[in-house]
Amino acid sequence: MDRRHGIGLGEATRVWALVGLNSFGGPAGQIAVMHRMLVEERRWFGERRFLHALNYCMLLPGPEAQQLATYFGWLLHGVRGGLIAGSLFVLPGFALILGLSLIYAGHGDTALVEAVFYGIKPAVFAIVTYAVVRIGSRVLGNRVLAGLAAAAFVAIFFFDVPFPLIVAGAAVVGWLGGRRRPDAFTGALADEDADDAGEEPRVRPSLRRGAGVLALGLALWWGPVLALAAWLGRESVYVQEGTFFSVVALVSFGGAYAVLAYVAQEAVQTYGWVTPGEMLDGLGMAETTPGPLILVVQFVGFMGAYRFADGVDPLLAGTAGAVLVAWVTFVPCFLWIFLGAPYVEYLRGNRALGTALSGVTAAVVGVILNLAVWFGLHVVFAEVGEKHVGPLRLYAPEWSSFDPVAAALTAGALVLVFGLRWGLLRTLAVSALVGAVLSLTGIA
Prior knowledge:
Elements: H1 9-21, H2 26-41, H3 47-58, H4 64-107, H5 111-116, H6 120-139, H7 143-158, H8 163-180, H9 207-232, H10 237-251, H11 257-270, H12 276-288, H13 296-308, H14 314-346, H15 351-380, E1 384-389, E2 392-397, H16 404-419, H17 424-440
Antiparallel strand pairs: 1-2
């Protein structure tokens, strides 16, 4: 047990396992799950600390929710805690997608799994909506911050402005605005977080420590790829996958969807690892199982190695490909946290940085609202297209694809969360059970 906060590693590990098992709904749902478990239910972290960490993770390439779990695990129990938290966030989804990939390669049918997860999406949407309302009510303490959140929502939802530009713009507005009207940019920092479990930084940042972390991280990240290249040659499918997805890990800013179009194009047209239909099936697996959406690359890695590895049992080759791709995708996520988190914590009390991050926090609320609306549309409509009018981007759901059962489940989940104040696990369990029964009986 850590004497500073009294939270034992075993207790924390159980919570990280729960977070991983319930991390549905993309980054918005996963952030909402962590906020509910860590801030509201257990009060391990205060609102300000949660948002401070989230702001940093939103700036990084890779899945921000997994990095957020790693950050909080590090705050509680150092590198060991970060490794446990980040790994447990990924492992449930990794195991499920690996199992589904094996089934898919042998039979091409995952309908049973889709039925099991049919009821989870409406519950996740309700939880995300609750998180947006809860966080927004806490951090948008004045019209300036509320207006910044609204501007961020409009920019990303209607004009498809890249997320890094929104964050950068919000930080500049917060920094400049804080110099002229500091009172307007302290809403997100008002919570004193008196009982915050990670109040004191675990380590002091230094160039020596940073260089050591960077060297070890790069060795773990690229070491397997270089070893495979020396053993099997640069033309091996494993080396091609390891190299390609290492590059993807560096450019995946703004969530998985921002980079999946590029991944799909290269995996289908350039390398031929998957067909267009298989890519869509893999995306469906990642959307209906816990864990980051970027885990779809694991399926691509499986199918590529299954199809092109020579002299090895195809299923075994596919499993090795899935493991390799997951490794080069998530090792960098740990690296960015262990390298940068000490600096982020050290600067937490800086006033100028605080007002800049207040602007970012307000913008992040707008971005999470964007994810919630996007996710909600895809819950109740099977097909959602896009229309462009000049720079304006409008989502255009296909009304014939409206799912009344999913809409009813969504309404019920909203009542459970907002009206009856049900907890996370209870809401997910009931919604999943009802949805699975309706789907398997043919009603849905």
